[in-house]
TrEMBL record:
FPG-type domain: residues covered: 239-273
Keyword Cytoplasm belongs to the record: no
Domain Formamidopyrimidine-DNA glycosylase catalytic: 2-120
Entry protein name: Fpg/Nei family DNA glycosylase
Transmembrane segment boundaries: none
Species name: Nocardioides jiangsuensis
Family according to the record: Belongs to the FPG family.
Keyword hit for DNA damage: yes
Pfam families according to UniProt: Fapy_DNA_glyco, H2TH, zf-FPG_IleRS
Catalysed reaction, written as an equation: Hydrolysis of DNA containing ring-opened 7-methylguanine residues, releasing 2,6-diamino-4-hydroxy-5-(N-methyl)formamidopyrimidine
């Protein structure tokens, strides 16, 4: 799933490609992906792209005052095309294409979604906050006003909730998903099941530093990369996420996994849980 660093890099890459270019049309190939009807897609035809930005994990193309917003969800991605087909795509359950943005010179970008669980969402709105998911976003963890005091209050308000879930909740902190929550908790040497409100003092400082460092370094590594290179860059720098059964790059212990109904987490017992493997079920009670 694209998370804050990848979406930030996508926005930067597309800003350079799209700014001051006119949108000729937007073709929807997966009708379930389009979540709005007013303004209509046709309102974007002829619109001049002014900027491409990010809100959490939402990608926002601003054109003549309107916003074409995409949430790539778990399996979505963006592919730049120097030349797009002249005919609009035909809707097909077999094709990963969800939408195509065509520019006035015949170039453009494909918004795709792999797999059968179609969760990718596209919106055309007058302002970003008209998208419910953006309106509910918590603070951005790389923003200047995301201070250690802000994080401390978030954790205190979360009570006994497990820190892994708190970090992933977009209404609490924007942009951190399954992969980077695993990574920054590993960097902080902290159990994913540790109660949020118990993280105080030195532990709070360690977690705050891990958030800023892990995400900040990922953004810097991704900066300037084309969309086609971002997935590989992300995977090559993961310490524990997606590496169950492999050695921890810090201590050499075997990276373990806890599986849930529709997701999983990875962690290092030596670095994060005092050497204790977490039970691979939702009811696990190991906290440290």
């Amino acid at each position: 799933m694209p998370e804050l660093p990848e979406v930030e890099a996508l926005a930067l890459d597309l800003r350079g490609r799209l700014t001051d270019r006119a949108i000729a049309r937007v073709d929807i190939a997966a009708f379930s992906a389009l979540k709005t009807f007013d303004p209509p897609l046709s309102a974007l035809y002829g619109a001049l792209v002014e900027d491409v930005t990010r809100h959490g994990k939402f990608l926002d193309i601003t054109a003549s005052g309107l916003h074409l917003v995409a949430h790539l969800s778990r399996a979505g991605w963006v592919r730049w095309r120097d030349e797009v087909p002249k005919l609009p795509p035909k809707p097909s359950h077999k094709s990963p294409l969800a939408a195509r943005v065509v520019l006035d010179d015949g170039s453009g970008l494909d918004i795709t979604e792999a797999g059968t669980q179609k969760r990718l969402a596209i919106y055309v709105v007058r302002k970003p906050s008209d998208v419910p998911g953006i309106e509910r976003l918590g603070p951005d963890p790389l923003a200047e006003d995301f201070t250690i005091d802000v994080l401390g209050q978030i954790l205190a308000d979360a009570g006994r909730a497990q820190i892994k879930g708190v970090l992933r909740h977009q209404g609490t902190i924007a942009g951190i998903g399954n992969a980077y929550s695993d990574e920054l908790l590993h960097a902080a040497r902290m159990s994913p099941f540790k109660p949020a409100s118990s993280i105080e003092g030195d532990d709070l400082q360690v977690l705050y530093d891990a958030i800023r460092t892990v995400l900040g370094e990922a953004v810097e590594r991704s900066r300037g990369l084309a969309a086609a290179d971002l997935k590989g860059e992300k995977k090559s720098h993961l310490a524990v996420h997606g590496r169950a059964g492999q050695p921890c790059p810090v201590c050499g212990d075997t990276v373990r996994e806890v599986s849930f109904a529709d997701s999983s987490l990875q962690y290092c017992p030596t670095c994060q849980t005092g050497g204790k493997p977490l039970a691979d079920r939702r009811t696990s009670k190991f906290l440290k």
